[in-house]
Design a protein that fits this description.
Layout: H1 6-23, H2 32-39, H3 97-112, H4 117-129, H5 141-151, H6 172-179, H7 183-195, H8 201-218, H9 223-230, H10 237-243, H11 248-251, H12 262-275, H13 280-289, H14 294-309, H15 316-320, H16 326-338
Helix pairs in contact: 1-6, 1-13, 1-14, 1-16, 3-4, 3-16, 6-7, 6-16, 7-8, 8-9, 8-14, 12-13, 12-14, 13-14
């Protein structure tokens, strides 16, 4: 058995936040010429700029039914306006809302020493309903669906909507980092956690595949082999061979969409992780610069590449300039203190 290293755990957790923060200023740019005009080639954390050339926030709507559903609060004034950057008030190196919630999840894991859905839900409600908590203008659809149901008096456990976006996978890297090497516990927690907000078999299946890939990688498996072993419903050796001969902007743009829908975004994530399996920096940079839903795709790509590379192989600028990572340090130290040896990768091939 291969010992699960603290370095790998940290790589998975930090990697997911780094992938998101690096892509944040160019999130949902579909016009790549505009992306390059506004930001150049994104290689470092940058602050977002207004106007956002591809923003469709002007046609997005959310009206809370009552105070229990008021999650936009001070940001509501910007919805319906043209050119507004989705993350206009975030600083370079800060995370978008979904990855800020990954830190809320880390708080819960630290406090309980395990995954506790009820505790996370309590923290989630408090975080989302506290004015000024996250300073992010955009609140993804699944949060709006959840809090519309909550405002109607539905119990939090039953507020999930039928969301099929890759944002549902944003917390898997932190869960794996905090709970591995117990593969069954990881997979059960991932399934329960995603189901709190996403009533979608497609997202749940992708989440389980991602959990198995990450657990295999943390147990010492080669990342590419783990992707091909557990990602077969979305990615294959044939696609790996064919797509790797093409530019990234062709693969993510023509072969699969750069948009948020899991049917395209998860294969795109697996492709980038497969192609850049030995180069964390190149992988997260490539993900940011192909645009689309690169923040949530970046959380997946970053977790996979970070788990394979380990924290020691991640460029120091990405670690030192990332905001609010003390929780991750505590989580990794806590998880490492109680962890035993990692299982062999073959154990992870079991299905529920």
């Amino acid at each position: 058995m291969t010992p699960l290293t603290t370095d790998q755990r940290a790589g998975a957790a930090w990697g997911s936040l780094i992938g998101d923060a690096l892509a944040m200023p160019v999130h949902w740019y579909y016009d790549r010429a505009a992306l390059k005009r506004d930001y150049g080639i994104v290689r470092d954390y940058l602050a977002p700029k207004n106007p956002h050339a591809d923003s469709i926030l002007w046609r997005s709507e959310y009206t809370p039914l009552n105070e229990r559903g008021d999650i936009l609060r001070e940001q509501a004034q910007y919805w319906g306006q043209r050119g507004i950057h989705y993350h206009q008030f975030l600083r370079a190196g800060e995370n978008t809302l979904n990855l800020q919630l990954a830190k809320v999840l880390a708080e819960s894991l630290i406090a309980n020493g395990r995954y506790d859905a009820a505790d996370y839900l309590s923290r989630y409600l408090t975080f989302m309903l506290t004015p000024g908590q996250h300073r992010d203008t955009y609140v993804e659809e699944y949060h709006r669906n959840f809090f519309t149901a909550y405002a109607r008096g539905i119990a939090p456990r039953k507020c999930a909507g039928s969301d099929i976006h890759i944002g549902g996978l944003a917390h898997v890297g932190v869960l794996c980092a905090g709970l591995a090497p117990d593969v069954r516990a990881v997979r059960a927690a991932v399934r329960e956690h995603i189901a709190l907000t996403h009533r979608s078999d497609e997202v749940l299946a992708a989440g389980d595949a991602l959990a198995r890939i990450l657990c295999d990688t943390l147990a010492g498996a080669d990342l590419r082999e783990a992707i091909l072993r557990h990602g077969t419903d979305w990615f294959s050796q044939r696609k790996a061979d064919q797509w790797s001969r093409e530019p990234d902007e062709v693969v993510i743009g023509h072969r699969v969409s750069p948009a948020c829908y899991i049917a395209d975004a998860f294969p795109a994530s697996l492709y980038l992780a497969w192609k850049y399996a030995a180069d964390f920096e190149a992988g997260v940079i490539a993900n940011a610069n192909v645009g689309g839903d690169n923040c949530h795709r970046g959380a997946v790509v970053g977790a996979l590449l970070g788990a394979a590379a380990g924290m020691s192989a991640i460029p120091s600028r990405f670690i030192e300039q990332l905001h609010g990572t003390d929780l991750l340090k505590t989580l990794i130290a806590s998880a490492a203190a109680k962890a035993g040896p990692a299982p062999t990768p073959s154990v992870v091939t079991e299905r529920f």
